[in-house]
């Protein structure tokens, strides 16, 4: 199934001149990875502060976009500028999961939100990324299949944050969360099925 992840090559081409400049200045892939984590933790913590509601939610789509760029940059620095490392591989996977949790969990505090649906989304997102990584252990490639991969989740939560910041509210938000949870279940299934199919092929 299609995913926003599919447009990543075009996005990388736009970033490549800047990545080359960063490499020339001695910036490492791991530094970029940790910067993306720090940004997510900072914004996630700010979302918990009642005095900044709901305007602080305008920061979420900007953070998602910047994180997407930073994630692409760290990968390009690693692959194209000889910065791949075992530590980088660990940081890349763990920081993404922690960053997502930090940015998504505060949505559970919205007045009309169902706490357990948001918690379920965070757990399912972690499982979906684990399914992608486990594929490597069985001899397949790292799976990024949709329909609700990392980039897709960032887009949905970014759009939702814009709505929250603009003052939208209502029980409809839980229908959106339920749909996200269902799509994450499909994503987990797709990643497992395609990993197995790749190994058998």
Automatic annotation (TrEMBL):
State the organism named in the record. Answer: Methylomonas subterranea
Write down the Pfam families for this protein, in alphabetical order.
CDP-OH_P_transf (PF01066)
UniProt superkingdom: Bacteria
Q: Which residues cross the membrane?
A: 32-49, 115-140, 152-169
Keywords, in A-Z order: Membrane, Transmembrane, Transmembrane helix
Which residues are the signal sequence here? none
This protein is called: CDP-alcohol phosphatidyltransferase family protein
